[in-house]
Design brief:
This protein is α/β, with parallel strands linked by helices. The protein has two domains: about 15-85, Urease, subunit C, domain 1 (Roll), CATH 2.30.40; about 95-410 and about 435-450, Metal-dependent hydrolases (TIM Barrel, Alpha-Beta Barrel), CATH 3.20.20.140. The chain has 14 helices and 17 strands. The chain has helices spanning about 15-20, 115-120, 140-150, 175-180, 200-215, 225-230, 245-250, 250-270, 285-290, 305, 330-340, 355-360, 380-390, 395-410; strands spanning about 40-50, 55-65, 65-70, 80-85, 90-95, 95-100, 125-130, 160, 165, 185-190, 220, 270-275, 295-300, 345, 425-435, 455-465, 465-470. The strands form four sheets. The chain has a six-stranded parallel sheet with strand order 9-10-11-12-13-14. Strand 1 (about 40-50) and strand 2 form a beta hairpin. The structure holds zinc ion. Zinc ion binds near residues 99, 101, 350 and 352.
Length: about 475
């Protein structure tokens, strides 16, 4: 690298001038109009473009699916499509959601590729990474990955990559799945809820970690300790519709104990590990200490943990059931602080829908209802609403939901609006007021914890590689793709 050249992520505000000199060299290859000017594919002019150095007015130029320049406002450039955003709209990068359960094939009635990606596009999400379980077969072998890719092929409105699973049955054979292109391996430390995806014992976790480390792979973990859960299970019995009973059955100590276990295997094997859907803020000091030690561990939390508090959940409202559970108001505020402090790295939706008969099984009994929250389409406005209420800028939300999630899975070509990045872009109206109606969401099932929520922020348009996101426009991603 040339001395003084900023690396990505280190750009300073005055770098904008550097990229504003004009279209880069590639434009020399573009066709000319009648007056001898280059004709671009798309230009988008906006009063606020969210670049890595902050929001500023300007014009984004797109050629062949890539951002080729960011120019001054009113730049005289020719394009086949010229877009000027409305005064209340800002241009942001597409959301990269690294935690989505699509469930196709096998449980397509819960959610499928067409419905999930249509909902994603409507919510400003341009890339998702699909979880290996709830579909049948689960993505635990190269053959199962191929079945999943066939189901997704031609069905996706946005880009889709795949996590693999690490289960007792495929330990020792993770290399083939890794080579087949999964972005990493998901494992559970407690029962997953579906019979075809078994959890790992502590000894198996250590084996999986050693194996993944040997591959240079990533281990992503549902971290709740089964012994702590088993000891607490009775507290949830007989409480039926009372959320407090369910909460007592999934205590903070289940997460803390499991995360300590993960940290120990990271320390002993060197595996890169990621804590999925962190709910307990009481685990933050443990994670902070592991990071301070220099261990390669990251953590995510989810829109529902940042939006809701246990005391606000009405009796019998099992659309709020998820594992680990939504906890206290104080816990929610500490999770926000964990993001601000950098102990939590990313926000992902953990969109995990199910049909109403499962979500409301037991007529409001939290012990019987299926767990999982549907929120892919509303993740951005939900997080932005909660962030804005705390004085946190949109730039921080975009860092947690676009750039860092993309970096986390190695998709370095997206997640920021900068020259050379993919033109996955969203016209977002940050002050628009909306009320979520689960029936109007494009998810397959009209059940969501966000139903009725009053949110600020609306997605008006989503571009995928410079074209409007829509049916069959999405690509299937592999860990070995160029651009990673
Ligand atoms: Zn999940």
């Amino acid at each position: 690298m040339i001395a003084g050249t900023p690396t990505p992520g280190e750009q300073r505000p005055d770098d904008f001038r550097e990229t504003s000199r004009g279209p880069w060299a590639r434009t020399a290859e573009l066709p000319l109009d009648g007056r001898g000017r280059h004709v671009h594919d798309l230009v988008i002019e906006a009063a606020a473009i969210h670049t890595p150095s902050g929001p500023r007015p300007g014009t984004v130029v797109v050629d062949a699916g890539t951002i080729t320049a960011i120019l001054e406002p009113d730049a005289a450039v020719e394009a086949r499509e010229q877009v000027r955003l409305a005064g209340d709209e800002v241009l942001i990068p597409g959301i990269v959601d690294t935690h989505v359960h699509v469930n196709e094939p096998g449980r397509t009635e819960w959610e499928g590729f067409a419905s999930a990606t249509a909902a994603a596009a409507a919510g400003g999400v341009t890339t998702i990474i699909d979880m290996p379980l709830n579909s049948i077969p689960p993505t635990t072998t190269p053959e199962a990955l191929e079945i999943k890719r066939k189901a997704a092929e031609g069905a996706c409105a946005i880009n889709v990559g795949f996590w693999g699973g690490a289960v007792p049955q495929n330990l020792g054979r993770l290399a083939a799945l890794h080579e087949a292109g999964v972005f990493g391996f998901k494992c559970f430390l407690s029962p997953s809820g579906v019979p075809e995806f078994d959890h790992l014992t502590s000894a198996q976790l250590a084996d999986a970690a050693a194996e993944a480390a040997g591959l240079g792979g990533l281990l992503i973990v549902h971290a709740e300790d089964p012994a702590v859960l088993a000891a607490a299970e009775a507290r949830g019995r007989g409480t039926r519709g009372e959320y407090s009973g369910f909460l007592a059955s999934r205590p903070d100590t289940a997460e803390i104990t499991a995360i300590e276990n993960v940290i120990a295997v990271v320390r002993s094997t060197g595996v890169r590990a990621h804590i999925l859907h962190l709910s307990s803020a009481r685990a933050l000091p443990v994670l902070a200490a592991a990071k301070a030690e220099g261990l390669p561990i990251t953590a995510e939390t989810c829109p529902h943990y940042l939006s809701f508090a246990a005391t606000e959940i009405p009796p019998g409202a099992t659309q709020f059931k998820c594992c680990p559970p939504i906890r206290s108001n104080e816990n929610r505020e500490l999770l926000w602080q964990g993001l601000i402090d950098g102990v939590i790295d990313v926000i992902a939706s953990d969109h995990s829908p199910a049909p109403a008969d499962l979500k409301f099984a037991g007529n409001g009994d939290f012990a019987q209802a299926w767990g999982g929250i549907a929120g892919l389409q509303v993740a951005l406005p939900a997080v932005w609403t909660a962030a804005a209420a705390r004085g946190i800028p949109l730039a921080s939300v975009l860092e947690w939901m676009c750039h860092r999630t993309a970096q986390f899975v190695g998709l370095t070509d997206r997640g920021r609006i900068e020259q050379g990045a993919r033109a996955d872009l969203v016209a977002f109206a940050p002050h628009a007021q909306t009320r979520v109606s689960a029936r109007e969401l494009l998810h397959r099932n009209p059940v969501s914890a966000f139903d009725g929520a009053e949110l600020v922020g609306a997605v008006h348009r989503t571009w995928l590689a410079g074209g409007t996101a829509g049916p069959a426009r999405g690509q299937l991603l592999s860990r070995s793709d160029p651009g990673r």
